[in-house]
Queue: 2 jobs
Job 1
Amino acid sequence: MDVRKLLKASAEARNLKFGKSIHAHLIVINQITRNHVIEKNSLINHYAKCGDLSSARILFDKMRKRNVVSWGSMMSGYSQHGYAQEVVQLWRKMVNVDKLNPNRHVLPMVLSSCSNCGLLDEGQQCHGYALKSGLIFHQYVKNALVYLYTMSTHLKEAMQVLDSPPRSDLCTYNSVLNGLLAHGYLNEACYVLRMMIEELEWSRWDGVTCVNVFSVCGHLKDLILGRQVHGRLLKIGLDHDLSVGSATLDMYGKCGDVSQMRKVFDVLRARNEVTWTAALTAYTQNECFEEALKLFLEMDRENIVPNECTFAVLLNSCAGLSALGYGSSIHARVEKVGLKHDIVVGNALIYMASKCGLIDDARMLFESLLDRDVISWNLMINGYSYHGLGMEALDVFQHMLSELKQPSYVTFVGVLSACSLLGRVDEAFYYLDHMMRDYGIEPGLEHYTCIVGLLGRARRLDEAENFIRSSPLRWDVIAWRTLLNACLVHQNYGLGKKVADVLLEIGPDDAGTCILMSNMHAKAKRWDKASAVRKLMRERNIKKEPGLSWIEIRNDTHVFVSGDTNHVESVQIREKVKTLLAKIRTLGYVPDIATELHDVEEEQKEDWLGYHSEKLAIAYALMKTPQGAPIRVMKNLRMCDDCHSAAKYISKLTNRTIIVRDANRFHRFRDGFCSCTDYW
Ligand SMILES: [Zn+2]
Ligand SMILES: [Zn+2]
């Protein structure tokens, strides 16, 4: 019987015991003591494959003469069991001590170990050797080199190897696309994708290819290509694959086609918790929060156990809806299954609490995290700024720096907003011009818009205008609207008019801009101008989005539309609003009818004001919640001046904390004051 064949068979079968008995037999017949390289190689290979690396290594170290197969067998054992460092160390010894040349099996193994350990220098030496020896023309060697350069983000070199012979195969493309996507190099991924479509037939694509291609489509929002690939993979029959299924859902979600996503999901034959979570994520990304929560009920019904990503997505949906009740029940479940300390879930909990107006709870969750990543810090800093608590935001930022955490692009959006809240102009410019650059962060539109808001808030309106006009940036509607809002608050109607002209040029059909302009004209008592804006809105069919407010009482959501009489308790609610307004008049409240859009008599304007959705919501909450309980209202538009003033007086009158989240920020009304200090 051929000993080598037996050892090979036992290695393939991972039968350690059988191989060991052969080893023992060889010792007994004294054959092993002589230097039989081939038999020893077979033994090493056997032990390495069976995972007994120390036995393999003892044999290997004792060999007086080793050939390239001995080295290769030992390396392959380390490589298969994840010891990439050992592979590279063996490679160094093989070249320097035994003076052996690698073959086409050893070289790719060393190259991929170099990639995994980030050892570019060694990898490049291998590249040099591959060129000299001609091994570069072997497919495995080429693929390993492409992988090395992509993973170390040496894209120029990666593309050079990719373009050189031999022709790239599926493996080459899969590994290069994988690497490019992992590092976010979308343009390059797109270039490689086009090359692949030209050179490789669709029928040869495998699951990994489809996942990669869907990922490119998703990032580029290329629905057309995504659909084509989906059609093809149905033909190849790859739709059974779990990861391909999730990638398909992900692609449709990122491209914004949720109905197609759902169709695909409903007919998927293989589904697990990852697939379900991909569908939930697609809904959440497209702000279909309710659909996400509904789908989760189905997931529960099918007894699929959610993972940490599932919970994070659900919490984000709750945050999007400000559905505190539902969010709390998810929170309880997270605690029950012991995922509270998972960082992804922990961050989602902070986000949910902050979005639902519970900034103190968010802080408590943040403090209780065992591990904090940059996202945790950003959530806290931006959360405080969003809640108008600039001081707290900057405190957390200082704390972050003292723990030597690296701030990111998003961190500075929160920090600059905080400076704006506090009127700290010089400090903000220090962050923008120095600190961000020290951290290697290029300031972007969001940061510059914060500066415009900051200067506007500090009454330095001309400076704000100069800042916009002198920066070579492509400003968007938001920045100019921020400036227009500042002109409105500080009653600088001259500049306001100029800014409005610019705005009408870049976004003439924007309802938000039109309303701000009309408000400005009305405040300046230029009624003709105000009515001209309204005429323009009618002509262009620009509709003001109806004002919508909602509150949650004992897990039920109550929605109020401005001027709406459909609520079952509509009569009582209006009665309540009337009494409230009458009572706060005695405290000094004066209805602000200037900004009301309707062409009606003053008295009727007051009436209209009383039916603004947030007033209805506050009145209803006062009727239905116990004395002293805080009131939380969510609103889709910016809160109007009149409701803002009324809410301040109502908080004083009823001794309640009223929290209103409008389209811009949180307002916390307490004892006659608002946390936004009347600037929003
Ligand atoms: Zn209002
Ligand atoms: Zn406010």
Job 2
Amino acid sequence: MTDSELILTQLSAEGYQTSKTFEGADLVIVNTCGFIDDAVKESLDTIGEALAANGRVIVTGCLGAKAGDAGGNLVRQMHPSVLAVTGPHATQEVMDAVHANLPKPHDPFLDLIPNAFGSAGIKLTPRHYAYLKISEGCNHRCTFCIIPSMRGDLVSRSIGDVLSDAKALFEGGVKELLVISQDTSAYGVDVKYRTGFWDGKPVKTRMLELVQTLADIAEPYGAWVRLHYVYPYPSVDEIIPFMATGRVLPYLDVPLQHSHPDVLKRMKRPASGEKNLERIQRWREACPELVIRSTFIAGFPGETEEEFAHLLDFMREAQIDRAGCFAYSPVDGAVANDIPGMLPLELREERRARFMAVAEEVSANKLLKRVGSTMQVLVDSAPGLGKKGGVGRSYADAPEIDGIVRLLPPEKISKTLKVGEFTKARIVGTQGHDLVALPI
Ligand code: SF4
């Protein structure tokens, strides 16, 4: 998402316009993913479709960095007629390829660009929420993951730039800022937590200082700050009391992947030696409102029934509010492919289903406990000013991955709902992963 946004920002800044169709464009830029086999296939298909419909195609993104079976570049092997291929985070290379094939239209007036957010650029998300990438790459080497081989080691963005982008986004109307990276808790490790500057004051390049300053910047705008991809390191403990004050949302997206120490070791997970259950329980004591989202892998190579049962027990005890689970699927080039004990697909799928049954039970019980309470809801959709109701999210729901709050038509005639604004709502019921609420 953010690579596309950077490219779009630059294209708009240079006066290029976007087209909704392949046929209507002078050339097509395809941003690809090469992480899992399905994504590779989808990306290659999209390149093929763009070539058939338009003929002038530039390819960027992770797949562009991938080698083919016989060496060389996979994209070029499959689609020799593409104009240019770049790897990920290659805005300048993409722009060079665009310039070589389609001259700049005219000098732009940056301030006149629609959907622009000053230094933070163009956003593809709805105007009221935005993703803020704080670093790129990762220092870990999880055995199932090929991101470090495609994106390299962790490189933190300067704290001053990150905070300036945040301010520009809030200025532009963003009400929810989603902090993302491959490893948010490691922010600043690569620069030894160097002290940078923002607004004339020194600020350390470190997660705690980042979160505190983001909360300060968000406050006058009444906006939310939500943290994604946080690993359960001891340093995260410092953030939890701050979450309890409500200045940053008491929501943590912690990709745990498993609970059993031996499986975590085989996965080479960050913080695999930490006692995650105890840590989560301490976090909940310090911040009872805390909502935890996580993802897990069922049927990792060598996973025994006992190890899997450990995961189910963990899920019940840790009471993970929002959990997703993948049946293990080998990724081309991943070290995990060489771990002995690959399980049959049916068993991996069966374990995933058993995990999801437990996860859904935990989640449904947690949602039921909210019935009768009043929550603040950010409105995502409200046709006709919400006279017939709408859709929103509470602090417990990140966009696109969690549940929603279905808003009923307000009882008060004078009450309206507007996209990108907050409303208070009384929770009156649940519907699967979602809540049903009455705006008040
Ligand atoms: S932490 Fe592990 S799974 Fe996440 S990007 Fe780094 S290597 Fe991949």
